[in-house]
Amino acid sequence: MEDLKLHGAWTSPYGQYVLWALKLEGIPFEYIEEHLSNKSDLLLQYNPVHNKIPVLVNGGRPICESTVIIEFLEEKWPQHPPMPSHTQGRAMAWFCAKLAQEKIIADIASGSVAHWMSFIEEVLKLKLFNAEKFRRLQCWMENFKKVPMIRENLPDHE
After folding, report:
1. Residues spanned by the domain of 25
2. Which helix (H) or strand (E) holds 141?
3. Do both 76 and 141 map to the same domain?
4. What one-character-per-residue DSSP string does 32-80 give?
5. Domain GST N-terminal spans what residues (predicted)?
6. How far apart are CA 23 and CA 10, in angstroms?
7. Which helix (H) or strand (E) covers residue 114, if one does?
């Protein structure tokens, strides 16, 4: 078994993108939560150019940037491909991945917002979201949080 470590942060949609890809594919790894306001020496060592997460460390060698990491996973573990095997499907998947990243991985970012909405409303003692007025959005938020792998990896409110 390879020594695989993912440096990420629960607040980062890019880190969540890689975390969920690893979990969905069943690839064992160690997760290291980074504090973005106080970055670890290891993170700075592994990504000296951008000092950003996610960073996947494979046997002591870092791989940076979420799309690069996904491509690495596909090539390293072909038995667990995160992308379709046929060229047209792969092209469409990469197009969607690129589009999603340009839009800050909309579902993941939105899912994170959906997860924290009730907590934010509770702290502010203010209703920010009207579920009756936005029924489709409310339905989407509930369905997103019901996906087992998503539900099991959402950060706690506490």
Report:
1. 4-87
2. helix 135-146
3. no
4. EE--TTS--HHHHHH-TTT--S-EEEETTEEEESHHHHHHHHHHH-TTS
5. 2-81
6. 15
7. helix 106-124
pLDDT reported for residue 47: 94
Q: Which of 21, 7, 2 is nearest to 56 (CA)?
A: 7
Lowest mean pLDDT among 14-23, 35-44, 130-139, 147-156: 147-156
The verdict on residue 69 lying in a domain is yes
Q: How many domains does the chain have?
A: 2
CA-based nearest residue to 140, from 107, 109, 118, 116: 107
Query: Mean per-residue pLDDT for 110-133?
Result: 70
Beta-carbon neighbour count of residue 131 at 10 Å?
A: 13
Are residues 78 and 19 both part of a single domain? yes
Sorted by sequence, the CB contacts under 8 Å of residue 72 that are 6+ apart come out as: 56, 58, 63
Final residue before a domain boundary, out of 58, 87, 116: 87
Residue 102 has pLDDT above 90, yes or no: no
Task: Report which of 146, 69, 30 is spatially closest to residue 154, judged by C-alpha positions.
Answer: 146
List the structure tokens of 112: 């994170």
pTM: 0.60
